[in-house]
Structures are given as structure tokens and as C-alpha cells.
Write a structure and sequence with these properties.
Layout lengths: L4 H11 L10 H9 L1 H7 L2 H11 L3 E11 L17 E4 L1 H5 L7 E6 L10 E3 L12 E2 L11 E2 L11 E2 L7 E5 L4 E3 L8 E10 L12 E5 L10 E2 L1
Parallel strand pairs: 11-12
Antiparallel strand pairs: 1-10, 1-11, 2-9, 3-8, 3-10, 4-7, 4-9, 5-6
């Protein structure tokens, strides 16, 4: 960078911003675009071993993201922070924007996932009921971007179980499994890395995701023209 620190500070103080500052060279940029440490998690052998046992040997990565619920600032008002709001009962398919198919989701715990900090709750066997009706959430505090929930009369809440995890452990869920989580009322963050997989044999159905990647086996079907390897 040829511009002096004094000039940078002067421009920043006058204009309130700086733009087009060089940071990454070509090699660094190529590496950054590949997200090597993130991709390493999606291809971790301990994860893929279980995924392949369920979906078969030929697996495509659909999507991955980090999801965090942060501690409350005031225990008496758990709605103050958007990241801390509760999830109502829902099917992952709905907020993934997927029309169906054998999609599997992994939650890799980066923090302990406990009752107090909003661990995931699921209703065992509910995936056998297929796609349940969703409606606009009627109560405030739903953290889902689509703001939808399953009507309470369709959910056996008393059958819900907590997926308690220590950091470094994972849980795996069917895309049709009913799940929810409470607000984080503790002083501990709850963060996880969510990874979604599906088998190569699944047809190219409507999805909101524009990129997929083969992470195990081979793809003899080529349903996804945008797939990379």
C-alpha cells in the first residue's frame, strides 16, 4: 500500500469511508474462495462415515452455514436480541427452500448445546408424517427468516426430546423431522456448523441453492449442472 497512514487517516476523517484498498493477492484470493478449512469440515471422515451409512456412498453437499444463539443481556427480557429468539416447531425443508427429497442435516456443535442455551428439540418419528402444514407465526420472537411455524395441534410437543451435545459432537436429522428450540436464557453462546447433504440419485428439484459439490463417491446421474467436484 503506497498511501501513507497520515493520508489514509485524513481521507477517512474527511469522507467517513475508504474504498478499493488492496488486501489479497491472486493466490490468496483463490484460496479464500475455496474456504479450505470450512470445506475440510464438510468432508470430515467422521461426518461422512455416518452420512454415507444413511444416504449411500455417493453424496452431494447442498449447503453449510454457522448458526449461533447468543447469551441474554438481561435474563428478564429474552426477546431483546434477534440472535437469541426461540424457534417455533418447523420442518427444515420449509426454510431451506426445498421441495422434497432425502435431505440430511448435520449439526456440528462448536459450543456445548444445552437446555439452558437453546439446544435443538426434535420429535422422534415425525419425519414419517411427510410435509406438514405451515402457517405464518402467530407469536413474536420466531427467529426464522420465513417466520413460519407448524400449528400446535399438528405437533405432539410432549414427545419432544432434547439433542444435548458437547462441543465437537454432532447430531443428524431428516429434513422432514419436526424440530424447534427455545431461547438462550443462559450466559453461554450456542453455536453450531450446519451441513446439508443429499444423494446423487435425487432428481434436480426446485431449491434455493445455486451451488452443489460432490463430497463422496461418484455422480452417475448428473442431475445438477452447477455441481463442482
Amino acid at each position: 500500500m503506497t498511501t501513507s497512514a497520515t493520508k489514509l487517516q485524513e481521507n477517512y476523517n474527511q469522507q467517513g469511508f475508504l474504498s478499493a484498498l488492496p488486501v489479497l493477492n491472486g493466490a490468496e484470493l483463490r484460496e479464500a474462495r475455496q474456504y479450505p478449512w470450512v470445506m475440510g469440515l464438510t468432508k470430515h471422515p467422521c461426518i461422512l462415515e455416518v452420512v454415507k451409512a444413511i444416504l449411500g456412498p455417493d453424496v452431494i453437499l447442498l449447503d453449510s452455514r454457522f448458526i449461533c444463539k447468543y447469551p441474554t443481556l438481561k435474563a428478564a427480557n429474552i426477546q431483546e436480541k434477534e440472535e437469541n429468539k426461540a424457534d417455533e416447531s418447523k420442518l427444515p425443508y420449509v426454510y431451506w427452500g426445498i421441495a422434497g427429497g432425502p435431505v440430511l442435516s448435520v449439526w456440528l456443535a462448536l459450543d456445548d448445546s444445552l437446555k439452558e442455551n437453546g439446544a435443538l428439540q426434535v420429535i422422534p418419528g415425525s419425519h414419517c408424517s411427510g410435509m406438514l402444514l405451515h402457517r405464518q407465526a402467530v407469536r413474536p420472537g420466531n427467529m426464522l427468516s420465513v417466520n413460519q411455524e407448524i400449528p400446535e395441534e399438528l405437533v405432539q410437543v410432549e414427545e419432544a426430546v432434547l439433542c444435548l451435545l458437547s462441543a465437537g459432537q454432532m447430531s443428524i436429522h431428516d429434513g422432514l423431522l419436526v424440530q424447534a428450540s427455545d431461547a438462550n436464557t443462559s450466559q453461554r453462546r450456542r453455536c453450531g456448523f450446519v451441513i446439508r447433504y443429499f444423494p446423487t440419485c435425487d432428481p434436480d428439484r426446485p431449491r434455493k441453492f445455486h451451488a452443489t459439490m460432490l463430497v463422496s463417491g461418484t455422480d452417475q446421474f448428473n442431475h445438477f449442472s452447477n455441481k463442482s467436484t
